[in-house]
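Justification of computing resources. Each target in the renewal requires a structure prediction run like the one illustrated here; the chain below, 316 residues long, is used simply to show the kind of job we budget for.
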Amino acid sequence: MKLLVTGGAGYIGSHVVRSAEQNGHECVVIDNLSTGVSSRISCPLVQLDLAAPTAVADLNALMKEHRFDAVIHLAARKQVGESVQIPETYYLDNLGGLANLLLAMKANDVKKLVFSSSAATYGMPDVDKVDEDYPGRPINPYGETKLIGEWMVKNAKVWGLRGVNLRYFNVAGCGPKELADTAALNLIPIAINALKAGKAPIVFGTDYPTPDGSCIRDYVHVQDLAEAHVAAVDYLERDDRPFDTFNVGTGEGASVIQVLDQLKISSGINFEYQISDRRAGDPPRLVAKVERIQEVLGFKAKHGLEEIVSSAWAAS
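Resulting structure tokens:
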């Protein structure tokens, strides 16, 4: 299949493109290169801001040239804390960009879309593991944009769109070293960067209702996540598609302190961490229930926390 991958020069996007190509798909990438790196990919790259006033016209021209079979939409702002500070920008970029993409897809009869969603749509679930039917109650603007994005994908069924939402849990690790996460927007790369600079990694809050007081998350290897996208593209080819939304995680949780303890082992550095105040918009625990994606897409994460942290350290 010929795939348009938005945000394909980013950390996650480049892994998705590499996995798609290895599975026989042809890719074209759109990226505004705000955090993306052009050298990560070898397929055609179009530098384009999806939220720009000219985006629909530019997308129309690109889609007429390439006649894509499907789109994987990854391009978005993704920092929870930043979204609390500049919510209007998150709505403009994440929802405006998606709206422009859907307008162009509709005009060019491109009817298959894999949407990059997030576990942030759940908010603060009061369950040990959250499944896809749990009501969406996001507690920050980033999560709100992802939930509304899912609604936009669902409502596009009226013109024939086949959409699937992948709710990412905490993505980390690295496949090929040249695809390493250079943006340092999440715990593991932030902690690694601190160590490399001779500073103490920061734990934001140790007073959460968890065993060690720090937040618990489901960490999924970026290589596993990439393979989930390929499985989702294949799923859109089916006539029988009982579900539109899938969690992508491992089903296992690790606390911030447990992650840092693993980083001590992987790095060989017996560092101390610094305790700071909670960040706005952080739920205490967020772990995926993963039976649906295993049973319907045949996807199961292969890598655990040790491999995630070690691969990130090795690529740093």
